[in-house]
C-alpha cells in the first residue's frame, strides 16, 4: 500500500505515522464493507436464481462468487506478506503479491 506525502510536508514523523495508521484503518474498513456487500449480493442473487431459474442470474451469481474468492485470496496474501521471517524467507514474502493478482 503506497502512500505519498507532498514534498513540502511540514508535519513531523509522528504526524506522518498517525496519517499512515489512519489510512490503513480506513482501508481495512473499506475492504470489510466491500466484502459484506459482496456477500449480501451473492445471497440475494442465490435466492433470485432459485426462485426464477434464470441462467442470467445464475451467471451473475457465479461472478459474485468469483469476486468474493478473489477478495479472500488478496486478503490472505496481504496477511502473509505482513508476517515476515527474514531467516525463513530471505527475499521476503513480497513476491507473493503477483500470486494474488
UniProtKB/TrEMBL annotation:
The UniProt keyword set, sorted, is:
Membrane, Transmembrane, Transmembrane helix, Transport
Subcellular location(s): the record lists: Membrane
Which InterPro entries does the UniProt entry name for this protein?
A: Cation_efflux_TM, Cation_efflux_TMD_sf, CDF_Transporter
Where is it mostly found? membrane
A Gene Ontology term for the protein's cellular component:
membrane
> Which Pfam family is one of those matched by this entry?
Cation_efflux
Q: How does it sit in the membrane?
A: Multi-pass membrane protein
Which sequence ranges form a coiled-coil region, renumbered to this chain?
none
Domain Cation efflux protein transmembrane: residue ranges: 32-100
Annotated GO molecular function terms are: monoatomic cation transmembrane transporter activity
Q: Domain of life of the organism in this record?
A: Eukaryota
Query: Is Transmembrane helix found in the keyword set?
Result: yes
Gene3D superfamilies for the chain? Cation efflux protein transmembrane domain
Q: Has the keyword Cytoplasm been applied to this entry?
A: no
PANTHER family per UniProt: CATION EFFLUX PROTEIN CYTOPLASMIC DOMAIN-CONTAINING PROTEIN, MITOCHONDRIAL METAL TRANSPORTER 1-RELATED
Q: Under which name does UniProt file this protein?
A: Cation efflux protein transmembrane domain-containing protein
Native species: Acrobeloides nanus
Amino acid at each position: 500500500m503506497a502512500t505519498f506525502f507532498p514534498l513540502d510536508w511540514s508535519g513531523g514523523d509522528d504526524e506522518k505515522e498517525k496519517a499512515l495508521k489512519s489510512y490503513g484503518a480506513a482501508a481495512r474498513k473499506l475492504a470489510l464493507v466491500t466484502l459484506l456487500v459482496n456477500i449480501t449480493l451473492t445471497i440475494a442473487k442465490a435466492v433470485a436464481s432459485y426462485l426464477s431459474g434464470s441462467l442470467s442470474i445464475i451467471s451473475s451469481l457465479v461472478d459474485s462468487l468469483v469476486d468474493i474468492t478473489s477478495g479472500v485470496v488478496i486478503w490472505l496474501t496481504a496477511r502473509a506478506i505482513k508476517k515476515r521471517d527474514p531467516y525463513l524467507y530471505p527475499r521476503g514474502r513480497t513476491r507473493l503479491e503477483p500470486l494474488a493478482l
